[in-house]
Amino acid sequence: MTIRHHPPADLLTSYAAGTLDLGDHIAVATHLSACPRCQAMAAALEHVGGAVLTGLPPMPMTDGALARVTARLDEPDRHSDHGNKDRAHPGHQDLGRTNRAPLDGVPGLPGFMRRYMAAPWIWVAPGVRMRPIQLPAASDSRVFLLQSRPRTKMLEHTHTGTELTCVLTGGFRHAAGDFGPGDFDWGDAEVRHDVTVAPSETCLCLVAMRGEVRLRGFWGALIQPFIRL
Amino acid sequence: MPADAEATPDNEDWSHAIAAVAAHRDRAAFARLFAHFAPLTKSLMRRSGLPESTADELAQETLLLVWRKASLFDPATAGASAWIFTIARNVRISAHRRGLAGALAELPDVDASFQPDDSPGPETRVATAQAGRRVRAALAKLSDAQRRVLELSFFEEKAHGDIARILQIPLGTVKSRARLAMSRMRELLDEFS
Question: What is the complex's ipTM, to 2 decimals?
Answer without folding.
Answer: 0.84
